[in-house]
């Protein structure tokens, strides 16, 4: 009896929890598959009857079978991003650039606590840049350029101390460009071609909450 209990505790429970995370991650990826049009069938191998998404094309996993990369740049995908992507806790690279994605950037992407690179450039994304992205403390590359994003540049993003590359050019952002924190290292090149975006912010002279957003 005691041995049976121990067997449950030390063998079955860990097994169960590892398949549960594989299912959660597989479900999140499958939600993306369902939300996009995929004329070139690049997501054909994303089969929910296979428990482990690590066998799917364009998905990379670590040794614990947790998803670390999604490589879907230039894949002719259209349709929407899904909030479920925020459940991929070990995702480091989210590469969805040069597709025809529409709709907004889900605020839930702020839950991708391992994320190093968020590449959504050259799509047709609308809506605002979620301030929740400021939770991505490992983020080094944030490329949202060439979309149709509106609203302000969230000042919270200046907290991203590891950010090396920021590109929000070619959108329809408004307000002023924050210049504090990690933003001190970015030049105007990161922000060009946002006709309603003013700045850089002149500390003490131009208030953050004015300029071009009315
Ligand atoms: C965005 O939409 C416009 C017009 O609806 C279209 O011409 C353009 O090709 C789209 N761009 C991308 C990257 O999908």
From TrEMBL:
Which Gene3D superfamilies does UniProt cross-reference here?
Ribonuclease Inhibitor (3.80.10.10)
Annotated signal sequence is 1-22
Report the residue ranges that make up the Leucine-rich repeat-containing N-terminal plant-type domain in this protein. 23-62
InterPro entries linked: LRR_dom_sf (IPR032675), LRR_N_plant-typ (IPR013210), LRR_R13L4/SHOC2-like (IPR055414)
Under Pfam families, the record lists: LRR_14 (PF23598), LRRNT_2 (PF08263)
Q: Which UniProt keywords apply?
A: Leucine-rich repeat, Repeat, Signal
Give start and end of each Disease resistance R13L4/SHOC-2-like LRR domain.
70-168
Superkingdom assignment: Eukaryota
Give the protein name, as stated in the record: Leucine-rich repeat-containing N-terminal plant-type domain-containing protein
Q: Which organism is it from?
A: Escallonia herrerae
